[in-house]
Each structure stands twice: as structure tokens, then as C-alpha cells.
Amino acid sequence: MKARRLIGGAAFQPDELKVIFDAFDEAWEEIAPDVSVRAKAIEAARFSLATIVLSLAAVGPIDKAQLKSAAIDAYRLKHRIP
Predict the structure, then answer these.
(1) CA angle centred on 6, ends 78 and 2, rounded to 5°
(2) pLDDT computed for residue 1 by the predictor
(3) Which of 13, 40, 52, 65 is the most interior residue, by most CB within 10 Å?
């Protein structure tokens, strides 16, 4: 998947990448029910979330709970999901 490749290719230490992947996966679990079932929509939504998670991680701190929460909030705001 493009989203996981994007995260995996980011310039972070391996332990930081693990936290980022975990935050992304947990955020996706919460957001997924609000996304269309169409494959292209799912791929676009996951890529959008991955971009948000990486942007947040770049400014730190890299904390799973904080990344997850902030990513969900940012995603919902960006895509106007209550």
C-alpha cells in the first residue's frame, strides 16, 4: 500500500518508525468506518492519514498516543468529518 510505503521511506530511526506505524494503524482503525468502501477512496484516505501522521511526527514528539489523537483530529478537520 502506498501509505505504508510512504511511512516506511520516511527519514526516522527504526524505533521511531515503529511508533509512527503503530499510531497510523490505530488512527486508521478509528477513521476507517467513516471512509467509503471503494478501493480508491480507501487508498486515498490512508495516504492522506499517512501524510498527516508524518507531518506531525516531523515536529515531534513521537509519542504513539499523541500522534494518533492529533492525526485523527487533523484528518477529520481536513476532510470535514465530525
Answers:
(1) 85
(2) 78
(3) 52
The predicted model scores a pTM of 0.93
Confirm if 16 and 37 have CB atoms less than 8 A apart.
Answer: no
Residue keyed to cell 478509528: 30
E strands, 1-81, in order: none
pLDDT in tens, 13-46: 999 999 999 999 999 999 999 999 999 999 999 9
Q: How far is CA 59 from CA 26, 42, 54, 55, 63, in A?
A: 20, 26, 9, 7, 11
**Cis-peptide into 61, omega within 30 deg:** yes
Please check whether residue 53 is in contact with residue 20, taking contact to mean a CB–CB distance below 8 angstroms: yes
Q: Which residue has the cell 527504526?
A: 14
Written as nine digits, the cell of 70 is 492529533
